[in-house]
């Protein structure tokens, strides 16, 4: 098969890249190895992590269209209460982690709708479920990528002028010989205050296999998981108690904190204030990542709230899945799933209740919400990818408030987007605790999307030129979308102008022209400077 642009990976970055390239009139093939496109928001079951000002500014126009589309889908198809229907910034789940917590199928439906016209016009072809297995490279140019069907083993070779790596782990980087890094960089290399003395390439953030639960009458206890006894005794040295428990380090202070858990707490969803400046919102785990608040809907429509479990105790720290054999990767992903089942079983049978009892046998695993028969999320939640060795590397001191203070984050001449989140690193496979650093609103430099050598491969997700540290604030939903959208537009722009991406970044005239195109398409490249005029 052949297209102008091949996008390997259909997560948030891949979907946004397809939109950006298709809007520019290019033929696109996008692949995805799971049954759902949308990555973090859908198959990985993670409500959107966003900054405080997301309802006013700081995201791309198409990402705002996605968020507005999710809200409109609820208004068009769900029996909302009058109060919820009138809520302009409707938060269907009234979760505390995000201003818009929603069921993954709704996010999926809206993303599919955003792509539908391009598929109908023949401009976009989506190959599912396919994953990359090999690449043909000539010099500094990727000629083609071989894709294998997940179930049948059939293979397709796709040739394209530009290849975008939107996979969750940067799978194309080793296949194409593109230079990359992984894990912790050394402080002597990056100068980052939070980096270790020596590089630790196999020390990466934990993966998590999320799942959805509700709480209804009856006994829904699952069989005791095979490795439950192992996980029941598991206690990281920095944790403050067993991993299967409500006590864990507070990400920002590292003090041992005990969270509460109260199924179907009778709160007012309209009173939820999901403002990340006020804390992470995980004090009550039931409310933290709730995706359906029953009181937002007609009385009796939902038997229970529905919550995503992406909590500290499901972080899998026993090994990395990057640059290991397929057998080793499968072993770790199975163990991560075993941990999640064990957490769920512990919640059902042993978790301490406020009334002095143990366990919540009315907890029900909602595989129908995550689209699986096994009950867990369709795909593991990947926080950290391989990362290109870029033209411009983003380091901690570029946006750390402790370093930059009131100067704010570094301004890049080649900014192609903006983002904001605390530098938020989960425990890692090397046995490290949380790293959480106050961050300034930052820009995304085009140079971070450019490999130093390879000319026609563009990262379109978490595999851009950040470090282990700065990945902690560049990995979130709106930034991944922004990166992907720009990657798709960059490839289309280069085809139109007969340039390569490095020429666009290096030449002031070309860069200014491309940035003007981004702005015209609703991509904010500078944070607002609000002052009298």
TrEMBL record:
Gene3D superfamilies linked to this entry: FAD/NAD(P)-binding domain
A Pfam family of this chain: FAD_oxidored
GO molecular function per UniProt: L-aspartate oxidase activity
InterPro entries in UniProt: FAD/NAD-bd_sf, NadB
The keyword Plastid is assigned to this record: no
Keyword S-adenosyl-L-methionine recorded: no
GO biological process, one term: NAD+ biosynthetic process
Keywords: Plasmid
PANTHER family, A to Z: L-ASPARTATE OXIDASE (PTHR42716), SLL0471 PROTEIN (PTHR42716:SF1)
Name of this chain's protein: FAD-dependent oxidoreductase
Species for this entry: Rhizobium favelukesii
């Amino acid at each position: 098969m052949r297209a102008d642009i091949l996008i390997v990976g259909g997560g948030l970055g891949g979907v946004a890249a397809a939109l950006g390239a298709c809007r520019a009139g290019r033929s696109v093939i996008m692949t995805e190895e799971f049954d759902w496109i949308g990555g973090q928001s859908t198959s990985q079951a993670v409500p959107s992590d966003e900054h405080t000002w997301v309802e006013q500014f700081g995201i791309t126009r198409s990402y705002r269209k996605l968020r507005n589309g999710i809200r409109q889908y609820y208004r068009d198809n769900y029996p909302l209460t009058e109060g919820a229907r009138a809520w302009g910034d409707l938060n269907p789940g009234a979760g505390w982690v995000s201003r818009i917590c929603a069921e993954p199928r709704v996010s999926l439906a809206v993303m599919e709708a955003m792509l539908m016209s391009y598929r109908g016009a023949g401009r976009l072809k989506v190959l599912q479920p396919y994953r990359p297995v090999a690449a043909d490279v000539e010099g500094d140019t990727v000629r083609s990528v071989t894709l294998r069907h997940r179930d049948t083993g059939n293979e397709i070779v796709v040739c394209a002028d530009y290849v975008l790596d939107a996979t969750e782990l940067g799978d194309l980087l080793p296949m194409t010989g593109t230079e990359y890094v992984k894990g912790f960089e050394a402080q002597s290399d990056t100068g980052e205050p939070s980096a270790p003395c020596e590089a630790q390439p196999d020390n990466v953030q934990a993966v998590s296999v999320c799942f959805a639960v509700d709480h209804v009458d009856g006994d829904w206890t699952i069989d005791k998981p095979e490795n439950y006894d192992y996980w029941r005794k598991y206690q990281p040295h920095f944790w403050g108690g067993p991993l299967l428990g409500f006590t864990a380090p507070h990400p920002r202070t590292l003090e041992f904190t005990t969270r509460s858990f109260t199924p179907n707490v009778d709160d007012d969803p309209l009173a939820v204030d999901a403002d990340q400046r006020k804390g992470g919102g995980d004090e009550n785990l039931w409310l933290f990542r709730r995706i359906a608040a029953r009181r937002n809907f007609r009385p009796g429509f939902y038997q229970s709230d529905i919550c995503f479990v992406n909590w500290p105790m499901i972080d899998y720290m026993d090994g990395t899945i990057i640059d290991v054999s397929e057998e080793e990767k499968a072993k770790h992903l199975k163990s991560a799933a075993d941990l999640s089942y064990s957490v769920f079983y512990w919640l059902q049978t042993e978790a301490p209740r406020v009334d002095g009892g143990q366990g919540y046998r009315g907890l029900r695993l909602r595989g129908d919400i995550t689209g699986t028969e096994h009950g867990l999320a369709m795909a593991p939640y990947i926080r950290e990818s391989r990362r290109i060795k870029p033209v411009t590397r983003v380091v901690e001191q570029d946006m750390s408030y402790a370093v930059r203070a009131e100067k704010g984050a570094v301004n890049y001449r080649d900014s192609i987007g903006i983002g904001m989140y605390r530098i938020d690193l989960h425990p890692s496979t090397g046995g490290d605790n949380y790293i959480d650093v106050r961050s300034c609103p930052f820009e995304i430099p085009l140079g971070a999307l450019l490999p130093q050598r390879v000319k026609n491969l563009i990262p379109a997700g978490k595999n851009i030129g950040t470090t282990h540290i700065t990945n902690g604030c560049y990995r979130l939903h709106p930034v991944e979308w922004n990166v992907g959208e720009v990657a798709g537009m960059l490839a289309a722009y280069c085809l139109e102008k007969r340039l390569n991406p490095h020429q666009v970044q290096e030449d002031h005239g070309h860069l200014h022209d491309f940035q003007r195109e981004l702005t015209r398409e609703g991509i904010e490249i500078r944070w607002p400077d609000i002052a009298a005029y």
